[in-house]
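Researcher: Go.
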Amino acid sequence: MDFCELTNMVMVQDPETGKVLVQKRIKKYCGIAFPGGHVEDGESIYASAVREIKEETGLDIRDLKACGYIHWNHANGDKYFTYFYKTTSFSGELVRETDEGPVFWVDPQDLSNLELAPNMWRYLPMFSGKYMECYCREENDDWNMIYL
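Model: Structure:
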């Protein structure tokens, strides 16, 4: 069987200000992105999203709404899935920074002016409510993106 990696990303939005929580990633996939991470063995994707947000932001999130997923299908047969969630329900105290990088609130309209992490611009449409899936097929050293 080909390699398959499962990840998550969560758009946490403050219901009072409308701002979204971002992280300036400094280790891997550097740049601005919504927090998230990998699914561990024996863990549901939903539970992994809750855990990753706690680890990366200090916040406890709940009432996550599914926003679909992106399926990266590499030419070598490897697959990479990122599952997207959003929520306006959270509690706790936001940490300023973790070993992954600084965490802060931004106005969603300002995202396009920031130095986004690789592929983050491809992920943003998934939070719009228009799509449930994006299928990405590697072709000739580029990606054919189909939003469904």
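Model: The longest strand covers residues 4-12.
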